[in-house]
Amino acid sequence: MTHITTEAKGSRGGAALRLVLCSFIGIFLFFVPVDINGKSTILLDHAATAISTQARPVAIGFVLLLMAYGAFAPFLRGTWRKTVTDAVFSVLRVLGLALAVLYLAGIGPEVLFAPDMLPFLFDKLVLSVGLIVPIGALALAFLIGYGLLEFTGVLVQPVMRPIWRTPGWSAIDAVASFVGSYSLALLITDRVFREGKYTVREAAIIATGFSTVSATFMIIVAKTLGLMDVWNFYFWTTLVVTFIVSAITARIWPLAGLAHEGDRDQPLPAGRSRLRFAVETGLEQAATAKSLPTLLRESFLDGLRMAAMILPSIMAVGLLGLLAAKFTPIFDILGLTLYPFTWIVQFGEPMLAAKALASGLAEMFLPVRRAEARGKGTRLRPCRDVPACHTAQGGSTGHEVRGGRGVCQPGPVSVGLRSLHAGDLYPAQLPQPSGDLVYSRRIEHTGDGTDRLDRNIHGMARLTMMRILRSSEYRHMPWKNGGGETVEIAVSPDRATIADFDWRISMATVATNGSFSTFPGVDRTLSILEGGGMTLSIEGRQPKLLTASDAPLSFPADVPTSAALSDGPVTDLNVMTRRQALKHRMRRIHVEGAHPVATNARDLVLFCHRGSVALVTGGVSATLHGLDTAILVQPASLTLTADIASEAFLIEIGPA
Q1: Interior/surface letters 591-604, b for 16+ CB within 10 angstroms, e for the rest
Q2: Which of 125-129, 172-176, 293-297, 340-344 has the lowest mean pLDDT?
Q3: Peptide bond into 493 cis (omega under 30)
């Protein structure tokens, strides 16, 4: 490349302005987190979230059109016959489109509608990726079209090439993935590769290395596994490990054997400083770049094409992997190959960690869900295995932790995947028919070797019980009138039927107009979670339009009631109690920051609808994610906390 020469000083100044201004816009859109309504993420993610929540029907229609194009285009163009891989993925894309249609229509076997199956794949992955990739494609024109890519490539070439065997401009991909989204990083990689700036080997190294993780995904993992208290250590360790692994895999099979026609970095001219040459290279690209409308159009079409190809694949391959992980031992068998590694690095449960890591081949969030499920369904090891541990039951060593909370002293002590230090509290969680039962008694060490229980004014040890129900554990049951299906969240007593429950909380999707089932002697409260709403015709009352923005509606469950949908299917939350014995109240609450809750209820149920809510009561703490539930018995106090704007439903149940 030669030094830039321009006929007029103004053209060079114009190129500089385009380089600086467009690069600033691209960097801001891709890399700068912005706090909106308590959620801190890049603007592209905010835009995708706003569309998916405020214009959900439009978003679903848009994503379905993309999936349809991705499913049928290979057959219309005949490209499905090129290779065996093309044929297989073409069939899988058609399957993915069919699964999406079945999910939205509510048709199919019950197992597919479990929260961790089609709902998870479509609502959490497909809908998100289907929006953020096209939106990100528009912003991509600013990031890589006007010289920033070339400027960065020359500047960091001495680092990227010798360590990761990639051009200097691959640093853009790495930062885009970690700060923004791995799907956007893959979009950048694809675009740069098709422009001829990456070889096959370089593109594969980037896609399988830098573009495999993102800060937003890591936050979800950290919150799920309770790692936010060590976020900095977790984040920077992951970053370093990812880059080390990328440097290693770039030099071994199969990546090392992929096509590489030679390095495509710009050589540094003799006598020219690297910074000066980087500026000149960026200015030349800015001066010769296409017009902004042209780049926006081309980038947007690229984003649509990429989204159309990957969305149906996510549905099909993701579901097959999830089914295999849930109903076959294939990933447990594969996990055996990883056991020596997890044992060497001294995981608390090396076999669990090995099997969880193997399940990541199906869906990268699956290891987190498996580890979380295992952690809440397994009792902690007996205290006799941890000599420094005092239990709430006996206040001395040698007692098994059952239904109590231990206080580690003096520590640290390894428990599972965590280390406890002096004064740390940990719960003993016992497997229950549905969810975890956690008892808590606060211990105060007096300094003389004895423990003193916190007592209430009656002199009795205060006992708080909290039960955590994860959405993946809910029961799916047919409606009493046979017209649909209910997701049973909680029922009292355990395993009670619809004929003999004391109280019951459930969700249901209403897809057609019709009559409600009647329950003699039962009061019910209904609230809309998703959808356009429905008009309830309750005998003895005026018809009532109930929408997702309305307060919950209470009415007798033993009077004739029918529903007419306003704008497509709705999902509702339903609470029922036996009128002669119990009464209840349900209210919708918005949580952002700390939110104290005052209640005198005997039983308190917290249902997290959107976001994540942390709760603390009587020394017990837990975090609920979307559709998770906590049941508390006689809570002395309750404080809810949410890092981002979240929505929950508080259900109070007590004697009539």
Answers
A1: bbeebebebebebb
A2: 172-176
A3: yes
